[in-house]
Structure formats: structure tokens, C-alpha cells
Write a structure and sequence with these properties.
Layout lengths: L1 H17 L1 H14 L5 E7 L5 E7 L11 H4 L8 H8 L7 H6 L4 E3 L9 H10 L7 E3 L1 H4 L7 H13 L3 H17 L5
Parallel strand pairs: 3-4
Antiparallel strand pairs: 1-2
Helix pairs in contact: 2-4, 6-8
Length: 187
């Protein structure tokens, strides 16, 4: 796991440096599109079930309900015009590189559940998923993203945790680009 952490730090620093221009463009677009902060913070479940604040570019109008993607799809869309574009290619997730630098997340791992997804969190705890740091991307993300039901996500996360290797992380990182650019399973 030491090598995983070192890799997380190196990749995060390189990505933050190389993508600084994209952060600036996204920030300007968000401010021009709608009122509210550029960065959205949300309580999530992290390593060993500890809570942390995840960072994302704000893609919804201020005051949108704090519910899972599955529940959000049942409501009138609070997503802004710029937010839809940021989500399309997962640009809204880039501020999580700061969570990685802080040690709250990893580049690869199970996606962190919302603090109020208690049923999902209980299933993940029972499956041993919470023993791994949450990731920006993961096995479930490259195999369906938001279109997967929770039980399937938990099984995918369990498989990742049970079969983790350093090389598997690299496979997932490279496969993430294909999943993102295909827009497969994105909300």
C-alpha cells in the first residue's frame, strides 16, 4: 500500500499541475453560468467508515437535494448547463485530486458513498470494502458507473478489494479514460 500512496501523490501533483488551465476554465464557466460557489463539498464515507468532505466542481444549482445519483434521476434536473458538460467527461471530479493529496482518497478505489446512504454503507462494510481508501475511479466505474445497481457496485468493489494489485490499479486508471470518453453509464 505504500507504493499505492506514493503513486497517488505523484499522479495527483502531476495532474494538478498539468490540468491547472482546465481548473481555471471550469471555474470561470461555473461562475458565468450560475450563482454559487465553484467548489462543492459533500460529506462522504471514507476509509474504515470515517466521514470526510469530498471536493467537486459544482454542477448543480445551489439548494439541490443531497441525495444519491439514483434518487436524483427521479427528480427534476437541478444540473446547470455548464454542469452537464462538466459531468459528461467527469471534469467535475477533478478537485478530488486534493482529497487524494490529503490522504482521504486514492486515485483508484471504491467510490465513496454519501453519508446518508446507510444501507449501501452497511453492505460495503459487511463486504470488507471500507478497508480500502475510496477512489476517484474504480472497478465499478469502468464497468458501468452510475447505471449499476448498488448490489452490483458492492460486488464489484468487493472484487477489487479482494484482488487488489498495484498493476490492477494501473489497468483501472487506463480503462477509466475509455469509460469517460465513451460516456457509458454517466449521469
Amino acid at each position: 500500500m505504500f507504493l499505492k500512496r506514493v503513486t497517488d501523490i505523484i499522479i495527483s501533483l502531476a495532474a494538478l499541475t498539468g490540468l491547472a488551465w482546465l481548473f481555471v476554465l471550469a471555474a470561470i464557466a461555473i461562475k458565468l453560468d450560475s450563482k454559487g460557489p465553484i467548489i462543492f463539498q459533500q460529506k462522504r464515507v471514507g476509509l474504515n467508515g470515517e466521514f470526510f468532505q469530498i471536493y467537486k466542481f459544482r454542477t448543480m444549482n445551489v439548494g439541490a437535494p443531497n441525495v444519491s445519483t439514483e434518487e436524483m434521476q427521479k427528480l427534476p434536473s437541478p444540473i446547470t448547463a455548464v454542469g452537464a458538460r462538466l459531468r459528461k467527461y467527469s471534469i467535475d471530479e477533478l478537485p478530488q485530486l486534493f482529497n487524494v493529496l490529503k490522504g482521504e482518497m486514492s486515485i483508484v478505489g471504491p467510490r465513496p458513498a454519501l453519508y446518508n446512504q446507510t444501507e449501501l454503507t452497511a453492505k460495503r462494510e459487511a463486504a470488507g470494502v471500507l478497508r480500502f481508501p475510496p477512489g476517484i475511479t474504480g472497478w465499478a466505474q469502468i464497468n458501468g458507473r452510475d447505471e449499476l445497481p448498488d448490489d452490483v457496485k458492492v460486488e464489484a468493489d468487493k472484487w477489487y478489494c479482494d484482488n487488489w494489485t498495484y498493476l490492477l490499479d494501473w489497468k483501472i486508471m487506463f480503462s477509466t479514460f475509455g469509460a469517460v470518453f465513451s460516456k457509458r453509464g454517466a449521469f
